[in-house]
């Protein structure tokens, strides 16, 4: 009788446990359904409007967009006073420094454009100029005997070359209606338009700028026959024919140009010419009938002439009598580009109504810093 009672109690206990398990499973299922519904709602809330890329905007990006679209600079002022490394107002000059992301996109356009930037030395400075000290003379030396007097030797000459920064500006415009469109990528538009304008203006100045409110181009310095070259001048090699290459052996003068450059510069040498000149040069062959020009084997690899990279700059002069249409040299040693890392923009909704003007400025300079590192090919008899 006692055994039957124990079995009955055990059966009742197991029934209670099963009921408790069913209740627990039911609560878990209800909780999972609630979590699924909550995740679904959160996903719907985060879903961007049609045609707008999904991205999380940083505070400075939102503030800059508000200033560009509607002229609301309150957020920019707050960030400029309280944030670190954010955009900041420039009360004396007007305008605001652009956000780092947009500035970097513009820098990418400048680096990617066909410009002397690809081969020159580029430095960033915080002042109004960049000074370079150049030692362009050698220290004297001589042999002596054990007991004989030691003669005084020559002293090296050091020159200070100052690369002055100049203001480069661009002022594209856009309609207010387009700015009001939430799907319009204002940062991308600014980067493309301003970057393209800056790249074209810089490229021309680095090659032929006169140094008046702009960089000094390497073609603007005095040019002399390389046989009588001296510091402060750019040496050139004549083709021997006015406005053309030699008719029978046109490639010989290319070889002469390469070896007119000192051995320590040739290792980093590069050619600079425009497309018309490149179309003539790439047809040249050596005495064995092999082309001197070879195209890059990999993507974005520059073409090569006699094994040296070729930079196509459309601002180089065409082949003509007396023109220096081809340059060869170590431009990292020979030409320095100095720039400030910041760029500022001023919004002007009044001067071109119903359009809005964006006045963007940056400071950049450039000049020859080693006159021995660059040689030119002059299309003339001498």
Short description:
With 382 residues, the chain is of the alpha+beta class. The chain is built from ten helices and 17 strands. The protein has helices spanning 2-46, 59-70, 74-82, 100-112, 176-180, 186-208, 252-260, 263-266, 275-281, 331-334; strands at 96-97, 121-124, 129-135, 158-164, 166-170, 173-175, 223-225, 234-238, 270-273, 293-294, 304-305, 308-312, 324-329, 335-339, 344-348, 355-368, 374-378.
Q: Any overview of this molecule?
A:
This protein has 382 residues and is of the alpha+beta class. The chain has two domains: 61-135 and 157-212 and 339-366, 2-Layer Sandwich (Major capsid protein gp5 fold); 218-335 and 369-378, hypothetical protein PF0899 domain (hypothetical protein PF0899 fold), CATH 3.30.2320.10. 34% of the residues lie in helices and 22% in strands. The strands form three sheets. An eight-stranded mixed β-sheet has the order 7-8-17-13-9-12-11-10. Strands 1, 2, 5, 6, 14, 15 and 16 form a seven-stranded mixed β-sheet that branches. Helix 2 runs antiparallel to helix 3. It is elongated, with a radius of gyration of 34 Å. Residues 44-56 and 81-94 have low confidence and may be disordered.
